[in-house]
Amino acid sequence: MGIINLRGGDKGMNESLTNRQIAFIIFGIVVGYGTLGLPKDITENAGTGAWFTLLISVVITMIFTYIITYLSYVHENKTIYEYSNILVGKFITFIFMIIYIIYFFVLFTMVTRISSEAIRLMVLIKTPVWALNLIFFLVVYYAVIKKLSVIGRVCEIYGLIIIIAALTIHGAVFTQGKLINLKPFFVAGHMGAYVKATLVTLVPFLGIEILVIIPFDNNKNNKKIFKYTIAMIGLIGFCYILNVESCISVMGVDGIVHYEDALFATIRRIDIKSLEFLERIDGIFLTIWIMCIICTITLGAYGSIFMINKLYNKIHFNILAFIVILSSFIVSQIPKTADEVGKILDYVGYLGLITAGVIPLILLIITKVKKYDKKI
């Protein structure tokens, strides 16, 4: 069956990227559907101190981003499949790969489904969810077969557009909000609640584990790669804080907790007549948000297909991509309601803590014990 082969299948699978492309790939997979419900989820748990909870989550995410970046940097031109085989052997590596495959597969499948549900409810009420799913999957298949270098360039272009648009939109939202809704900024007595709420805010930062499938070429990816990846997490955290604070400023804590799609609900409430091109800001937001979703599900799909290709390398990548995406389309139709999809994504979040935290930490410890990092 060709289950374990250190050559890892397609030679073209191990594609190196520039530091900037790697950073934008992180942005592409992390920033997605979760931005809609983030204001509600975090405000329910941290109130107006949401910004502080997010700050804690940013620091934690930076630490694990550094760990994963470090592993790829030390094990030059290798992905997790290759360096895990060296560090823990074939059997444990196989288990790790299965965990990553399940995680990436369920992630991109359910994000596609719930995003389609959201689009149907927001603008295409009479369109069947399966039809929206199909459109997403066709786009994803086309992107995935172009391989990682093309996906990296797309994420770079989309990422720049999304960041500029996000700063503009949230800045516009702030002009319609009230400072009083953001107070009190911090309550020392609520420190326990702020820390506890990080369990909710860590999930929207999941996706950093995509780094495990990107081989680092130290001629391209010198030590500056650490600055790029850490800085991108900082930028994502800043965008998340803007997202939450702008929503609270308009709707207040008591109002925001009633909306699952709090961000879109907030944007629909405001009307900036003085800026004609922003008069229908919800349309601009929806376009940008769909770009985020395309990046997220494309990278999730590529992650699962990449891992499967490493284990079963006799199947051509494009054929494997078709099989995986067709399977994903079928699985995406199984949940009957959006609530069921949401529950599945909650479990995926817990699995993400293993793929982004536990497994990289284990491999880091073994790398240190076996002194594979002496070259740094």
From TrEMBL:
Transmembrane segments: 21-38, 50-74, 86-108, 128-145, 157-174, 194-213, 225-243, 284-308, 315-335, 347-366
InterPro entries, per database record: Spore_GerAB (IPR004761)
Protein name: Uncharacterized protein
Record key words, sorted: Germination, Membrane, Transmembrane, Transmembrane helix, Transport
Top-rank lineage group of the source organism: Bacteria
UniProt GO cellular component terms: membrane
Subcellular location: Membrane
One Pfam family it belongs to: Spore_permease
GO biological process assignments: spore germination
UniProt cross-references to PANTHER family, sorted A to Z: SPORE GERMINATION PROTEIN A2 (PTHR34975)
Similarity comment: Belongs to the amino acid-polyamine-organocation (APC) superfamily. Spore germination protein (SGP) (TC 2.A.3.9) family.
Membrane topology listed for this record: Multi-pass membrane protein
Annotated NCBIfam families: 2A0309
